[in-house]
Amino acid sequence: MSEPARNASLHDTTSRPSTQPGPLRDWLAAMRATTPEGRQQGPEAPQPAAEASKQAGWAPRLVATVDAPQAQSQDDEVAELIAENMMLKAKLRLAADRQDEFQILLAQEIRELRGHVTEEIAKLEDLREERDLWKARCEALMQPLFNGTR
């Protein structure tokens, strides 16, 4: 970097006197003439910060936050949404726990029903065997009667 560039001030206020008009000065004048709502102030109500900056040289411009109630309402809405989200998550957890309990109960009932069906099938098989045994005995008893008449 060249030596003059290092020594040059970034905010050189002497290059343009305050009486000379320019785009930045016009913009600053327009900003000082408007309130935060965008309405023009009359010449009878100058801003205190503008007067202080004229007397003391340069002072930072104070900007009133107009969006503070809106920001507060947005924070309240976000807090309400977070609370609602937490409640919904808790309800979802409870529903999932209940569903797990129902699935456990259903599985147990299905096991008991399978056991009962297995017992009933075993009883049915026993009855079939007994039926087949009695049928065979009846046929054995009836066969001499049918053979003798022929």
In short:
The chain has 150 residues and is an all-alpha fold. The chain contains 4 helices and no strands.
Molecular structure report:
- This protein is an all-alpha fold and 150 residues long.
- It has a domain at 3-56.
- 71% of the residues lie in helices and 0% in strands.
- It contains four helices and no strands.
- The chain has helices at residues 3-7, 23-33, 48-56, 68-149.
- It is rod-shaped and about 145 Å long.
Total number of helices: 4
Q: Can you tell me the overall shape? A: rod-shaped
Uncertain runs are 40-46
Average of per-residue pLDDT values: 75
Radius of gyration: 49 Å
User: Strand-residue fraction?
Assistant: under 5%
Percent in helix: over 70%
- Quickly give the structural class: mainly alpha
How many β-strands, per DSSP? 0
Instruction: State the order of secondary-structure elements, H for helix, E for strand.
Output: HHHH
Write the layout of secondary structure elements.
Blueprint lengths: L2 H5 L15 H11 L14 H9 L11 H82 L1
